[in-house]
Design a protein that fits this description.
alpha/beta, 5 helices, 30% helix
């Protein structure tokens, strides 16, 4: 039996690679949205991760007519009122992860409460109208300086207490086992089985 094509509604190559590693074993032939359309990504106007994931998944389904998976995720720091939250990819108006990381550290320079969490919502839409949603969360702390070169985004600043290392120091398998995205996808996999 051939694998079902699943379009990832993402233009983030790092995220796409991470999702593909987790979804291929579930029997999906994971493809990037760019293989089907040159349309620009939709504007993420949602107030929550779930709303933004739905916006992206619906747009991708409309463009391709195929099963589409989208995720929206980000870093939330309670001491900063939940920021960067849904604005994680554009926090501080910066275009690179390195700039956003420097900005986050600057915002937290005098903050003692370093608690933080990554949150993810995944949405899987099928052409027949079926819709699955799942979410995941990973709790940790913001370090005072980056550690590790793996992962992407805020990973080098996010300390995972249960492993005693930053996300940037974890292998792909270790990260998938504890990450917000890994947890959300495992919930989704249960819905599909």
């Amino acid at each position: 039996m051939s694998a079902q094509v699943l379009v990832l509604a993402s233009h983030n190559a790092d995220k796409a690679a991470e999702l593909s590693d987790m979804l291929t074993p579930l029997g999906f032939d994971v493809r990037l949205l760019s293989e089907f359309t040159e349309a620009p990504p939709p504007e993420e106007t949602g107030a929550t991760f779930e709303e933004n994931a739905l916006i992206k998944a619906r747009s991708a389904l409309s463009e391709t007519g195929r099963a589409c998976l989208s995720d929206d995720s980000g870093l939330c720091v309670p001491a900063l009122g939940g920021a960067p939250g849904v604005f994680s990819a554009r926090y501080g108006g910066f275009s690179t992860a390195a700039e956003r990381n420097v900005f986050l550290l600057e915002q937290m320079k005098h903050v003692d409460d370093r608690r933080a969490y990554f949150e993810c919502c995944v949405v899987l839409l099928f052409p027949d109208g079926r819709e699955l949603r799942a979410s995941g969360r990973c709790d940790g702390e913001i370090l005072r300086a980056p550690r590790g070169t793996r992962g992407f985004g805020y990973d080098p600043l996010f300390f995972v207490p249960e492993l005693g290392r930053s996300m940037g120091e974890l292998s792909g398998e270790e990260k998938a086992a504890v990450s917000h995205r890994g947890r959300a996808l495992r919930k989704l996999a249960l819905m599909l089985s």
